[in-house]
Amino acid sequence: MRAPLALCLVLAAGAAAAEPAPAPYLTAGALGAAAILPPPPKPGSPAHDADAAAYAATRGLAGSPRWDLATADVPSGVAALLADFSCAAGRRLDPGRLPALAGLLARARRDVVALVRDAKARFARPRPHFGNDAPLCVDRSEALDRSLSYPSGHATEGWTFSLVLAALMPERATALLRRGRIYGESRIVCGVHWASDVEAGRLAGSALFATLVGDPAFRADLDRARTDLAAASPEPGPEPAACAREEATWP
């Protein structure tokens, strides 16, 4: 049945009003993670045994404060990551008040997605929860089962964003990079990635950031984001108590 004309006009207007997704900074194929990353550990190898041991050990964290932080780290995307990094930044990173920073990260995220997608397709590594019923910090689903493991997209995104933020706030670099590491390790705690997936994500994120800083458009946006941060008066928060609880969960 054809939709009524009025409904078609509403849908068309909504589609026209929606903003198009930002284009990646890099051209397709400019950076090949599958060529940069080492292959994931083979079953039966010492490295895979170490991955399996880390998976087994972190199942014991279920219900702990570290498990709660890992669960809170599950949402990805610009707004979620900026909230996650606010304690490390020492200020609330509100994308609505920092549009240049939010725009830069939204565009860089497209590069993260392309890089990780191609590498996952190349290596096709299953996630660690297959074949067991150990606790995860996310619901088991067909979508999770179908998704691939190496490298971790969350770890790649979190590490890339932490490098961007460290470049913009060098006085907070140690805290920001530490939070980027912890964000990636939350995927091990959650039970949805092997430890080597997360290590590969950090390598992929480092390679991506190194390539992005050679791109004139990225550098221009980085300068705009730096101006954005300097001009915006820091908002109250994040709450010191919340930041103290977060800090207490970190090794």
Low-pLDDT segments, ≥5 res: 1-17
Instruction: Tell me the radius of gyration.
Output: 20 Å
Secondary structure class reads mainly alpha
Characterize the main sheet: none
Order of helices and strands: HHHHHHHHHHHHH
* Overall shape: globular
How far is the first residue's CA from the last residue's CA?
Answer: 59 Å
Question: Assembly state here?
Answer: single chain
Number of strands: 0
**Would you tell me the overall average pLDDT?**
90
Task: Walk me through the structure.
With 251 residues, the chain is mainly alpha-helical. The protein contains 13 helices and no strands. Helix 7 crosses helix 11, helix 7 crosses helix 12 and helix 10 runs antiparallel to helix 11. It is globular. The N terminus is likely disordered.
Give a summary of the structure in a few sentences:
This protein is mostly helical and 251 residues long.
List keywords for this structure.
mainly alpha, 13 helices, disordered N terminus, single chain, 251 residues
Question: Could you give the topology of this structure?
Answer:
Blueprint: H1 5-17, H2 33-36, H3 46-58, H4 65-72, H5 78-84, H6 86-89, H7 99-123, H8 142-146, H9 153-168, H10 173-190, H11 195-212, H12 216-231, H13 240-248
Helix pairs in contact: 4-10, 7-9, 7-11, 7-12, 9-10, 9-11, 10-11
